[in-house]
Amino acid sequence: MTTVLCVPQWQGSSSPNARRLVPGARIAAAAIRADAHVTVPVLDTDGEREAGVRALDVLTENLRLTREALAGIDDAVITVGGECAVDLAPLSAARARYGTELRVLWIDAHPDLYTPRTLPSGSFHGMILRTLLGEGPAPLVPEQPLAPEQVTIAGLRAFEPDVREQVEDYIEQSGIRRFGVGDLEGALDGLTGPVYLHVDLDVLDPPGFGATCYPEPDGVEPQRLIDLVSRIDTVVGAAITEHAPATGILVRPR
Predict the structure, then answer these.
(1) Residues 88/45, Cβ–Cβ less than 8 Å
(2) How many CA atoms are closer than 13 Å to the CA of 251, on its beta-carbon side?
(3) Are 217 and 181 spatial neighbours (Cβ–Cβ below 8 Å)?
């Protein structure tokens, strides 16, 4: 049994097109065949910037609402966003259930390893993975964080220029496994046990799929991503994020 959990949250993004993530989430969720579809009634307000995080109050309430929705679901869950922060509650729940055996394959053009101190925009979707690892705004840090050895990042190719070296050092020192576009398939080497799969659609090459708020050049071809994912037979949960269906819209740097 599988349930699609639609979380049309946009507040974690600072893109001028962030609200397009709402219809994007609904469209993507409707396209997935499942035994049930549940939509989290997230807030649609801007919220306040606190502790270096945009809309922290809204994100905290949306997290509560998502946890509440998850509490009534016993099936395997495919979470559909919205921006990457929608995966905070589902992935935390998977960590609580599977413990240190859980492996997370984070497929994303961006590292999502920033902190409120290193990301001037305050966009929480750029901090979500660091928060899942236990370093982030206090109201959003899970009770049982991931350990770096549980995480593999794949498709990584874009950083905030001013803090790229700092994030690169963190990845190397923490022991997080990382793979770019050229060696994408290497992310599956040694990936055993229960796997949680996170896919940010901006990992894709824009000519093949560009309906995201932060498209990055030289990405992964859609069929290549499909082939990669189809080789994983131990997926216990998944998320698809950052679908922003629009064309001809100005997009500013992340």
Answers:
(1) no
(2) 19
(3) no
φ and ψ of 137, to 5 deg? -60, 130
The tens digit of pLDDT for each residue in 6-45 reads: 999 999 999 999 999 999 999 999 999 999 999 999 999 9
Asked whether the CA dihedral 45, 49, 53, 56 is positive or negative, the reply is negative
Residue partners of 209: CB distance under 8 A and separation at least 6? 201, 222
HEC per residue, 86-108: HHHHHHHHHHHHHHHHCEEEEEC
pLDDT value at position 252?
Answer: 40
Tell me which residue has tokens 């080789």: 231
Beta bridge partners of 107: 154, 199
Residues in the chain: 254
37, two tokens: 């579809």
Closest CA to 237 of 96, 131, 130: 96
CA 241 to CA 107: how far, in whole Å? 10
Q: What is the DSSP string of 114-183?
A: --TTT-TT--GGGTHHHHHTT-S-GGGS-SSPPPGGGEEEES-----GGGHHHHHHHHHHHT-EEE-STT
